[in-house]
């Protein structure tokens, strides 16, 4: 699909937000594995504990992922 056909969509912005989301998600998942173990990533990601405690590295990475997801959605008109 040629996204340049749709007004308001910028292919570089779409690509940038995609890359940012992938990187933020990978960092958060890596921290989940570090804190809870590789076999519990899915379980903990679906629970509040996967967000981490306020001020923790896990919370920082979770918040960064949420920000990247919000930017990804906004770039696609999904906000």
Radius of gyration: 15 Å
**Average pLDDT rating:** 89
Q: What class, by secondary structure content?
A: mainly alpha
Intertermini distance:
21 Å
The amount of helix comes to 55-70%
Outline:
With 79 residues, the chain is mainly α.
Describe the protein:
By secondary structure, this protein is mainly alpha-helical. 63% of the residues lie in helices and 0% in strands. It is built from three helices and no strands. The two termini are 21 Å apart. The model has no long low-confidence stretch (mean pLDDT 89).
List the helices and strands and how they pair.
Elements: H1 11-36, H2 41-45, H3 57-75
Helix pairs in contact: 1-3
Q: Which key features would you list for this structure?
A:
79 residues, 63% helix, mainly alpha, 3 helices, elongated
């Amino acid at each position: 699909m040629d996204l340049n056909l749709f007004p308001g969509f910028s292919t570089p912005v779409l690509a940038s937000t995609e890359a940012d989301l992938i990187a933020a998600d990978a960092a958060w998942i890596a921290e989940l594995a570090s804190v809870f173990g590789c076999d519990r990533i899915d379980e903990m990601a679906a629970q509040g504990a996967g967000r981490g405690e306020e001020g923790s590295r896990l919370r920082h990475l979770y918040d960064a992922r949420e920000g990247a997801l919000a930017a990804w959605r906004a770039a696609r008109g999904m906000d």
